[in-house]
Amino acid sequence: MITQTTLQGAGLGLRRALLPELLSMDSHVVDFLECAPENWIDVGGAYGQQLMSLAERFPLSCHGLSLSLGGPAPLDMQLLQRSRAFLDRFQVPLFSEHLSYCSDEGHLYDLLPLPFTDEAVLHLAARIRQVQDVLGRRIAVENISYYAAPFQALAEIEFLKAVISEADCDLLLDINNLYVNSINHNYDAKAYLAAIPAERVVCMHVAGHYDEAVDLKIDTHGAPVKADVWSLLRLAYQRFGAVPTLLERDFNFPPLSDLVMEVSQIRQLQQQGVRHG
User: Fold this and answer.
1) In CATH, what number is assigned to the domain containing residue 49?
2) Distance between CA 192 and CA 195 in Å, rounded?
3) Residue 141, CA distances (Å) to 26, 31, 135, 165, 203 in order
4) Alpha carbon distance 151, 142 (integer Å)
5) Cβ atoms 78, 48 nearer than 8 A
6) What does the pLDDT look like over 232-246, one tens digit per residue?
7) Which has the closest alpha carbon to 250: 15, 11, 63, 23?
8) CA-CA distance, 203 to 13, in Å (whole number)?
9) How many domains would you assign to the chain?
10) Is residue 45 part of a domain?
């Protein structure tokens, strides 16, 4: 498998709506950009040139949307092969996907939760190993937000640990998803952090959510990061060190300067975590 360099610092999601501002942004403002390869594979013309321009200035990480790791249908080998070519072309140091499924006979356009069972662990792990073989590199899987689980024979954290151990893959820890799930499903987010194998955590995400009620949070990626998520991120750095971390924002975009302020806050917390360690 390819030996990859490690991302560093604080990054921002590469979204087409932000392209004009990203292209004029100073190189020191963010440390890397993250994109969904499905949105950029074989894209030419002006968009392709703009992606190339950004890739020349910033390292790219890739966060897949469509592999449907937990799904029942065979993996899309054509997508995997095209993804490998994209990753190799842009020398992408990290590829991640969601610990969920999103397709069967067609694409479902949502990230759906899996039953937390031993059978699901084995199914996921086999598919993750297959993805790693085709891509020629280790991948990271992301804990998703969910609002109802099909069946829970295992606790969420035990299911997550079993998958990454059986698959021998890494973890992209989404702090906002962890916080949202801890409120919605009434568990201790700090205990969850403490149970994660630190050596598996290679990247983290933070994002905003919507407070539907005291006991119901909706993961939106359409708002600023909330104070409780920042606090949990601070604890994560104390536990895992200054893991590279991405700010996700998918819609309702503010001026780029507002997003840059949140990226700067990530950097500040990373530095505090290093000092604490």
Assistant:
1) 3.20.20.150
2) 5
3) 31, 21, 14, 12, 10
4) 19
5) no
6) 999 999 999 999 999
7) 15
8) 13
9) 1
10) yes
**Secondary structure (3-state) at 254:** coil
Q: Which has the closest alpha carbon to 67: 16, 15, 135? A: 135
Comparing CA positions, the residue from 219, 70, 66 lying closest to residue 150 is 70
DSSP assignment letter at 14: -
Q: Is residue 1 part of a domain?
A: no
Q: CA dihedral in degrees (72, 250, 64, 239; nearest 10)? A: -100
pTM as predicted: 0.93
pLDDT digits (tens, 9 = 90+) for 164-217: 999 999 999 999 999 999 999 999 999 999 999 999 999 999 999 999 999 999
- CA distances 167 to 22, 68, 129, 203, 233, Å, are 36, 15, 6, 18, 26
Owning domain of residue 172: 10-276
- What are 161's two structure tokens? 């640990």
How far apart (Å, rounded) are the C-alpha atoms in residues 56 and 209? 32
SS3 249: coil
CA 48 – CA 41 distance, rounded (Å): 9
Q: What angle do CA 145, 79, 107 make, to 5 degrees?
A: 50
53's tokens:
């321009």
